[in-house]
Amino acid sequence: MPQPDHSKELTEALAGRILVLDGAMGTTIRTYGLSEADARGSRFLEGEKDLLNNGDILSLTCPHVIGDIHKRFYVAGSDICETNTFSATSIAQSEFFIDDPREQGGRKDPEFFQNIIENPFLNELAWEMNVESARLCRKWADAIGSDSGRKRYVAGAIGPLTVSLTNSPDPEDNAFRVVHFDQVLEAYKHQIRALIEGGCDILMIETIFDSLNAKAAAVAVQEVFEEQNLKLPLILSAAVGLGGETMISAQKVEAFWNAFAHTHPLAIGLNCSLGPDLMRPHLEELSACATTHVSCYPNAGLPNPLAPTGFDLEPRHMHDFMAAFAEAGLLNLAGGCCGNTPEHIDAIAKAVAGKKPREVPVIG
């Protein structure tokens, strides 16, 4: 059921300390050694496409695993954990359940995606994924919060999708888009309604590669709030390249802030794509221009298939980098993306404990 607006409560908490986010759901799932049969369960036995890489479906087929991951992150020190819903939209889930027309010489286009967002199976699946994922996270937020005496929060994860509104995939038709803005908007609204129904405290539009996709998500948030006469805190987080630009729309960090400042987010930040060393200059730029709280949850360095987590940096390394970020006054919320396990979050929580949070600039 919908939660009350905790914006004031969270703002007060952020004034006193750096809050801790969670780590990487996908990385941590891999440590459980699940099989394709585990991912399918008894419910999804049919179907030609593999589901093991469909991490969101595990909220339905292996809820004990997803619940345990949330529990471990909260115990490690996370104040806020994200729901297991990064790809829980009809558009993203179509990759796992609908034949790709390109394999038969066709193409994905707005007509194809209109059928996707009207598909009863995909809509019911997306709804259940979001509601159940939120309830799983809510269960452990309340349990660990009660046991520890420190309130924990649930952030509904809204991912970037597998399609782009900014770029055309057709070199001979720059105006062509595989999907329309209103179609992306509708898919996001369906997800957001379900996240609210499941009991999220916060909505998090994250790993933003394409700012126009994120614009659709932000509009969806506002329209659902108006439709349901409620409000929840909003966090936005972009994934940027080495030059500090969003991967598809190529917005630099300051432009990213300017594009979303009107949404009055609780926080805006950076995550994924880079390790903390390469992310620091872009975090400094964002910290200098944003007039709200700043979040940062980088990857655990660069990918390394020989490392236990698939990434270079160990917990002790993340501790040192995030401690340095905190000491430089760059952080209000800290966590980890790809490669960051509960052990990494434990180290990050210890790194920022007792350190003064970044001061939010006062306007006017």
Set out the fold topology:
Blueprint: H1 7-16, E1 19-20, H2 25-30, H3 36-40, H4 58-61, H5 63-76, E2 80-82, H6 90-97, H7 110-117, H8 120-148, E3 153-158, H9 181-198, E4 202-208, H10 211-228, E5 234-238, H11 253-260, E6 267-271, H12 276-289, E7 293-297, H13 315-327, E8 333-334, H14 342-352
The residue ranges in which pLDDT falls below 50 over 5 or more consecutive positions are none
| SSE-based structural type | alpha/beta
Number of domains: 1
CATH superfamily (homologous) name: Homocysteine-binding-like domain
Shape: globular
Total beta-strand segments: 8
The CATH architecture can be named as Alpha-Beta Barrel
Proportion of residues in β-strands: 5-15%
Structure overview:
The chain has one domain: TIM Barrel (Alpha-Beta Barrel), CATH 3.20.20. The protein contains 14 helices and 8 strands. The chain has helices at residues 7-16, 25-30, 36-40, 58-61, 63-76, 90-97, 110-117, 120-148, 181-198, 211-228, 253-260, 276-289, 315-327, 342-352; strands at residues 19-20, 80-82, 153-158, 202-208, 234-238, 267-271, 293-297, 333-334. Helix 6 (90-97) crosses helix 8 (120-148), helix 9 crosses helix 10 and helix 13 (315-327) runs parallel beside helix 14 (342-352). The model has no long low-confidence stretch (mean pLDDT 95).
